[in-house]
Amino acid sequence: MDINNLNSQQDGHSFLDFAYQLYRTMKTNEISLVYEGEITQDITKTFTAMTEKSMAKHEESNAVQRKVFNVMVECLQNISKHADSMAEDTEEERRGIVMVSRGDDCYNIITGNVIRNSKVPGLTENLEQVNSLDKKGLSELFKTQMKEGRLSDKGGAGLGLIDIAKKTGSTLGYQFKEINDEVSFFILTSTIHRNK
Question: pLDDT tens, 57-70?
Protein backbone atom coordinates (compact mmCIF):
# COMPACT_ATOMS: atom_id res chain seq x y z
CA MET A 1 0.00 0.00 0.00
CA ASP A 2 1.25 3.48 -0.88
CA ILE A 3 1.60 5.40 2.43
CA ASN A 4 1.77 8.80 0.68
CA ASN A 5 -1.49 8.08 -1.13
CA LEU A 6 -3.12 6.98 2.15
CA ASN A 7 -1.93 10.16 3.91
CA SER A 8 -3.24 12.39 1.13
CA GLN A 9 -6.59 10.57 1.24
CA GLN A 10 -6.76 11.09 5.02
CA ASP A 11 -5.85 14.78 4.59
CA GLY A 12 -8.57 15.07 1.95
CA HIS A 13 -11.14 13.45 4.25
CA SER A 14 -10.04 15.66 7.16
CA PHE A 15 -10.46 18.76 5.04
CA LEU A 16 -13.87 17.61 3.78
CA ASP A 17 -14.96 16.90 7.37
CA PHE A 18 -13.72 20.34 8.41
CA ALA A 19 -15.54 22.02 5.48
CA TYR A 20 -18.77 20.19 6.34
CA GLN A 21 -18.49 21.09 10.05
CA LEU A 22 -17.87 24.72 9.11
CA TYR A 23 -20.92 24.66 6.83
CA ARG A 24 -23.09 23.17 9.62
CA THR A 25 -21.80 25.71 12.16
CA MET A 26 -22.52 28.55 9.76
CA LYS A 27 -26.05 27.29 9.06
CA THR A 28 -26.78 26.71 12.77
CA ASN A 29 -25.58 30.18 13.73
CA GLU A 30 -27.13 31.77 10.62
CA ILE A 31 -23.74 33.10 9.47
CA SER A 32 -24.24 34.40 5.96
CA LEU A 33 -20.74 35.70 5.17
CA VAL A 34 -17.22 34.89 6.36
CA TYR A 35 -13.88 36.31 5.27
CA GLU A 36 -10.37 35.69 6.62
CA GLY A 37 -7.31 37.43 5.26
CA GLU A 38 -5.77 40.81 4.63
CA ILE A 39 -8.20 43.69 5.05
CA THR A 40 -7.81 46.15 2.18
CA GLN A 41 -10.00 48.85 0.65
CA ASP A 42 -11.02 46.42 -2.13
CA ILE A 43 -11.95 43.68 0.36
CA THR A 44 -14.02 46.19 2.35
CA LYS A 45 -15.92 47.22 -0.82
CA THR A 46 -16.52 43.61 -1.88
CA PHE A 47 -17.62 42.43 1.56
CA THR A 48 -20.00 45.33 2.11
CA ALA A 49 -21.47 44.90 -1.39
CA MET A 50 -22.13 41.20 -0.72
CA THR A 51 -23.76 42.02 2.63
CA GLU A 52 -25.97 44.67 1.03
CA LYS A 53 -27.07 42.17 -1.62
CA SER A 54 -27.88 39.59 1.06
CA MET A 55 -29.91 42.11 3.10
CA ALA A 56 -31.78 43.32 0.03
CA LYS A 57 -32.72 39.69 -0.69
CA HIS A 58 -34.18 39.48 2.84
CA GLU A 59 -36.00 42.79 2.22
CA GLU A 60 -34.42 44.57 5.17
CA SER A 61 -35.43 48.18 5.77
CA ASN A 62 -33.13 50.91 4.49
CA ALA A 63 -32.43 51.99 8.08
CA VAL A 64 -31.20 48.52 9.08
CA GLN A 65 -29.17 48.16 5.87
CA ARG A 66 -27.52 51.54 6.48
CA LYS A 67 -26.63 50.64 10.10
CA VAL A 68 -25.19 47.25 9.15
CA PHE A 69 -23.21 48.79 6.29
CA ASN A 70 -21.79 51.64 8.44
CA VAL A 71 -20.88 49.37 11.36
CA MET A 72 -19.23 46.85 9.05
CA VAL A 73 -17.10 49.53 7.38
CA GLU A 74 -16.03 50.83 10.82
CA CYS A 75 -15.18 47.29 12.01
CA LEU A 76 -13.13 46.56 8.88
CA GLN A 77 -11.30 49.88 9.22
CA ASN A 78 -10.49 49.03 12.84
CA ILE A 79 -8.80 45.82 11.68
CA SER A 80 -6.87 47.55 8.90
CA LYS A 81 -5.65 50.26 11.31
CA HIS A 82 -5.09 48.34 14.53
CA ALA A 83 -4.38 44.67 13.79
CA ASP A 84 -0.89 43.50 14.70
CA SER A 85 1.16 40.73 13.14
CA MET A 86 2.12 37.56 15.02
CA ALA A 87 5.79 38.58 15.16
CA GLU A 88 6.92 42.11 16.01
CA ASP A 89 9.81 42.16 13.54
CA THR A 90 7.79 41.22 10.44
CA GLU A 91 5.90 43.41 8.01
CA GLU A 92 3.12 40.85 7.69
CA GLU A 93 -0.12 42.29 6.30
CA ARG A 94 -2.90 43.19 8.71
CA ARG A 95 -5.12 40.17 8.65
CA GLY A 96 -8.42 39.53 10.31
CA ILE A 97 -11.63 37.55 10.22
CA VAL A 98 -15.08 39.03 9.60
CA MET A 99 -18.41 37.24 9.95
CA VAL A 100 -21.97 38.44 9.49
CA SER A 101 -24.78 36.47 11.09
CA ARG A 102 -28.49 37.10 10.71
CA GLY A 103 -30.73 36.16 13.63
CA ASP A 104 -34.48 36.48 14.11
CA ASP A 105 -34.31 40.05 15.38
CA CYS A 106 -30.76 41.22 14.78
CA TYR A 107 -27.55 41.13 12.77
CA ASN A 108 -24.21 40.37 14.40
CA ILE A 109 -20.94 41.55 12.92
CA ILE A 110 -18.08 39.58 14.46
CA THR A 111 -14.49 40.58 13.78
CA GLY A 112 -11.24 39.12 15.02
CA ASN A 113 -7.61 40.12 14.74
CA VAL A 114 -4.24 39.69 16.43
CA ILE A 115 -3.28 42.35 18.97
CA ARG A 116 -0.15 42.80 21.08
CA ASN A 117 -0.73 41.88 24.74
CA SER A 118 0.64 45.27 25.80
CA LYS A 119 -2.42 46.91 24.16
CA VAL A 120 -5.02 44.72 25.88
CA PRO A 121 -5.40 46.72 29.16
CA GLY A 122 -5.88 50.05 27.32
CA LEU A 123 -8.33 48.54 24.83
CA THR A 124 -10.27 46.85 27.65
CA GLU A 125 -10.51 50.20 29.45
CA ASN A 126 -11.80 51.87 26.24
CA LEU A 127 -14.39 49.13 25.69
CA GLU A 128 -15.60 49.26 29.31
CA GLN A 129 -15.92 53.05 29.13
CA VAL A 130 -17.88 52.87 25.85
CA ASN A 131 -20.15 50.12 27.23
CA SER A 132 -20.92 52.16 30.37
CA LEU A 133 -22.37 55.13 28.45
CA ASP A 134 -25.80 55.81 26.99
CA LYS A 135 -26.32 57.44 23.57
CA LYS A 136 -25.94 60.99 24.96
CA GLY A 137 -22.79 60.01 26.87
CA LEU A 138 -21.30 58.41 23.74
CA SER A 139 -21.96 61.58 21.71
CA GLU A 140 -20.31 63.73 24.38
CA LEU A 141 -17.29 61.41 24.61
CA PHE A 142 -16.95 61.42 20.81
CA LYS A 143 -17.03 65.26 20.73
CA THR A 144 -14.52 65.47 23.59
CA GLN A 145 -12.09 63.09 21.93
CA MET A 146 -12.37 64.99 18.63
CA LYS A 147 -11.97 68.41 20.32
CA GLU A 148 -8.98 67.39 22.42
CA GLY A 149 -7.40 65.77 19.39
CA ARG A 150 -6.45 62.68 21.35
CA LEU A 151 -5.57 60.63 18.34
CA SER A 152 -3.16 57.74 18.44
CA ASP A 153 -0.44 57.21 15.84
CA LYS A 154 -2.81 54.82 14.07
CA GLY A 155 -5.70 57.24 13.73
CA GLY A 156 -8.02 57.01 16.71
CA ALA A 157 -8.33 56.80 20.47
CA GLY A 158 -11.37 54.58 20.59
CA LEU A 159 -13.30 56.80 18.15
CA GLY A 160 -14.19 53.79 16.01
CA LEU A 161 -15.53 51.91 19.04
CA ILE A 162 -17.57 54.93 20.15
CA ASP A 163 -19.00 55.26 16.63
CA ILE A 164 -19.93 51.55 16.47
CA ALA A 165 -21.67 51.74 19.87
CA LYS A 166 -23.57 54.90 18.78
CA LYS A 167 -24.71 53.30 15.53
CA THR A 168 -25.76 49.95 17.02
CA GLY A 169 -27.34 51.28 20.22
CA SER A 170 -25.98 48.12 21.88
CA THR A 171 -23.08 47.28 24.15
CA LEU A 172 -20.05 45.82 22.39
CA GLY A 173 -19.21 42.20 23.07
CA TYR A 174 -15.50 41.40 23.28
CA GLN A 175 -13.00 38.72 24.23
CA PHE A 176 -9.24 38.33 24.23
CA LYS A 177 -7.82 34.84 23.60
CA GLU A 178 -4.14 34.72 24.51
CA ILE A 179 -2.05 33.13 21.76
CA ASN A 180 1.34 33.44 23.45
CA ASP A 181 3.30 35.84 25.71
CA GLU A 182 3.40 38.47 22.95
CA VAL A 183 -0.01 38.48 21.28
CA SER A 184 -3.71 37.71 21.77
CA PHE A 185 -6.67 37.30 19.43
CA PHE A 186 -9.20 40.10 19.89
CA ILE A 187 -12.84 39.28 19.07
CA LEU A 188 -15.40 42.09 18.81
CA THR A 189 -19.15 41.50 18.39
CA SER A 190 -21.41 44.34 17.26
CA THR A 191 -25.18 43.71 17.35
CA ILE A 192 -27.68 45.64 15.25
CA HIS A 193 -31.30 45.09 16.33
CA ARG A 194 -33.94 45.40 13.66
CA ASN A 195 -36.44 47.15 15.94
CA LYS A 196 -34.09 49.87 17.32
Answer: 888 888 888 899 89
Q: Do 51 and 72 form a contact (C-beta atoms < 8 A)?
A: yes
Question: Which has the closest alpha carbon to 95: 72, 113, 120, 117?
Answer: 113
SS (H, E, C) 3-44: HHHHHHHHHHHHHHHHHHHHHHHHHHCCEEEEEEEECCHHHH
Instruction: Give 2's pLDDT tier (boundaries 50, 70, 90).
Output: very low
The Cα-based distances of 161 to 126, 128, 134, 148, 180 in angstroms read 8, 11, 14, 17, 25
Model confidence over 157-177: pLDDT tens digits? 478 899 999 999 999 999 999
Q: Give φ, ψ of 128 to 5 degrees.
A: -65, -40
